[in-house]
Design goal:
Number of strands: 5
Shape: globular
Oligomer: single chain
Strand content: 5-15%
Number of helices: 11
Strand order of the largest sheet: 1-2-3-4-5
Order of helices and strands: HHEHHEEHHHHEEHHH
Distance between the termini: 44 Å
Structural class: alpha+beta
């Protein structure tokens, strides 16, 4: 209860963004290992559907406004868009619905939020005055990509869409490496990789959440700090911990190898 409250509190230190970016980089690395053609932070995707004479005005908006329509991951071959989310819902919601429902609720709200932001941009920059969600930007999103899938990571697990993506990654990796690892079939290798990927994501997410709690406890006890030096130290410590883990246990891509 209190740990979730500390994780969700808004403080200085930029912990939410650093946690988000770390999870995004992990998924990007896993997808590329599985042979997917994937891009991250596709800033150009929707920009070309904003009126040319208003595009410069849009680019002068704050980064937070512009990032509202920038998906985190794009699988090019499938036209699948993903957006990584951390679970920061209130304790009241968690007590009523449970942890699994909380992360799924976070995932389910992503696509509607994107459509709302796209509609707001259509109205402000494309001069759209017609039906809701039918402006040029909204139509492009719906026609070419269907929806933006949320990937929610919480303190006690991940959402259903993360599990579905893990299955796709495991299958893609197995199709590339099942002979190399000595498996009897792609199906057998898929099970091995799925377990290994789940462990890697779970360990990474747990480490990030623990670091977030410690950061916030330190902020509450000590007050201000040098943000840039603090961030560099955390990144250095995380890199050293990750290097030590892989030195001891090896990468999951070698799972099943002698």
């Amino acid at each position: 209860k209190h740990g979730i409250a500390i994780q969700s509190m808004l403080t200085k230190g930029d912990g939410f963004r650093r946690r988000h970016n770390s999870l995004e980089r992990l998924l990007l690395r896993l997808l590329r290992r599985a042979g997917f053609d994937v891009s991250n932070e596709v800033t150009w995707l929707f920009l070309r559907h904003i009126a040319l004479d208003r595009r410069a005005a849009f680019m002068r908006q704050s980064l937070g406004v512009r990032k509202g329509i920038i998906p985190d991951l794009l699988l090019r071959a499938f036209n699948d868009l993903f957006d990584v989310k951390g679970q920061t819902l209130s304790n009241t919601f968690l007590q009523k619905s449970g942890f699994r429902q909380a992360v799924n609720a976070k995932e389910n709200g992503v696509n509607l939020n994107y459509r709302r932001r796209a509609h707001a941009i259509d109205c402000k920059y494309n001069g759209w005055r017609g039906a809701r969600f039918m402006g040029p930007l909204c139509r492009f999103l719906t026609t070419h990509y269907g929806k933006v899938t949320g990937l929610a990571f919480g303190p006690h697990g991940v959402g259903d869409q993360v599990e579905a993506l893990v299955s796709r990654i495991a299958k893609g990796t197995a199709e590339l490496q099942w002979r190399q690892m000595g498996a009897r079939s792609v199906k057998e290798a898929t099970g091995v990789f799925k377990h290994a990927i789940r462990c890697e994501i779970g360990i990474h997410n747990t480490r990030l959440l623990s670091q977030l709690v410690f950061d916030r406890v330190g902020i509450m006890l000590n007050g201000g700090f040098d943000k840039s030096a603090y961030s560099r130290k955390n990144e250095r410590d995380a890199a050293e911990a990750e290097h030590e883990y892989w030195t001891r246990h090896g990468g999951w891509s070698n799972a099943g190898a002698p």
